[in-house]
Design brief:
Elements: H1 3-8, H2 16-25, H3 29-37, H4 41-55, H5 58-68, H6 77-89
Amino acid sequence: MTLEEFRASDGRGLDGALLALWWDAKGDWEKAHEVAQEVAGVDGAWVHAYLHRKEGDLGNAGYWYRRAGRAGGVGDLRLEWEGIVGEMLGR
């Protein structure tokens, strides 16, 4: 699946971290966060970090970036979202 196909999808067939990112792209931060909280491992932590950075809770975001083993996000949130989705789709 390409990034464009992901954006255009109806979300069916997605789960875990990608489903959380799909909900975020649809403008439902709460649903995205709810899904991300249920995703174990570093992918869940990475998406959780991104969502808290988007929310503006940088302290909480920093905690989740560390749990994910990732550098804290900086700059354009849209580019970070694309990078996360792109890496996960590329696996």
